[in-house]
């Protein structure tokens, strides 16, 4: 891997370094198909974002959890749930 430090970081660690990577042609075709569609202005921007997600992955809820949230919202709309405060009052726990 070759690197080229192109932007000074002024001691704050925010400079950039150019790196060369090799990717299979089919992967590059997919990147080229997707980056503009997703609102990126360049391959580099898209790859940087992907690397950030690799380092610090976003929290994602499982399909099961998402389904339970939908059920919970429906139960709330239908009046089948009680607030925590109401339950505490009913059980005498607000003392």
TrEMBL record:
<dbReference type="InterPro" id="IPR010985">
    <property type="entry name" value="Ribbon_hlx_hlx"/>
</dbReference>
<feature type="compositionally biased region" description="Polar residues">
    <location>
        <begin position="1"/>
        <end position="17"/>
    </location>
</feature>
<feature type="region of interest" description="Disordered">
    <location>
        <begin position="1"/>
        <end position="21"/>
    </location>
</feature>
<feature type="region of interest" description="Disordered">
    <location>
        <begin position="69"/>
        <end position="95"/>
    </location>
</feature>
<dbReference type="InterPro" id="IPR002145">
    <property type="entry name" value="CopG"/>
</dbReference>
<feature type="domain" description="Ribbon-helix-helix protein CopG">
    <location>
        <begin position="19"/>
        <end position="56"/>
    </location>
</feature>
<dbReference type="GO" id="GO:0006355">
    <property type="term" value="P:regulation of DNA-templated transcription"/>
</dbReference>
<dbReference type="GO" id="GO:0003677">
    <property type="term" value="F:DNA binding"/>
</dbReference>
<dbReference type="Pfam" id="PF01402">
    <property type="entry name" value="RHH_1"/>
</dbReference>
<dbReference type="InterPro" id="IPR013321">
    <property type="entry name" value="Arc_rbn_hlx_hlx"/>
</dbReference>
<dbReference type="InterPro" id="IPR050192">
    <property type="entry name" value="CopG/NikR_regulator"/>
</dbReference>
<protein>
    <submittedName>
        <fullName>CopG family transcriptional regulator</fullName>
    </submittedName>
</protein>
